[in-house]
Amino acid sequence: MEVIYYTLVAAGLYFMSDWLLDRIEVSRGERFQNRGVRSLVFFLIILVLAFITFGLINYLVLYQE
Fold it and tell me: Would the CA dihedral through 54, 56, 59, 60 be positive or negative?
């Protein structure tokens, strides 16, 4: 069951990270010109969100039993 939770959350994290990246670019007033920078910002967003949410899932699953 844990694998299903992680998979569903990972898909949600992808879309949430994409949305946050778009919000950052809108607030800047322009898109990141360098695709490498854009990819790095996306990676950092999804990494932070993944650590937070996967840690929370792990905590909930371990202490649910």
Answer: negative
